[in-house]
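Here is one chain, start to finish.
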Amino acid sequence: MKSLYSRKRLAVLRGFAATALGYIVLLEAVPQILYGYVDPGSGILALQMIAAVAVGALFQFRRWVILCVKRFRRPKNT
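Its structure:
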């Protein structure tokens, strides 16, 4: 008789169960109230990194659009 779960599926389920158990143990090990402080210099540095990633992504997107337009544009007959 064929088993409802194959060996591969059981291995995936075991991995999921182990991961879920690990997260539960981790959540219990961490204190519930966390106190943190970010000084203004670190906050500005994080904001600058986010802005740099955003501007870089915009330039890359613009480059991809230009390449796609050039690739699909019909050549002019001169």
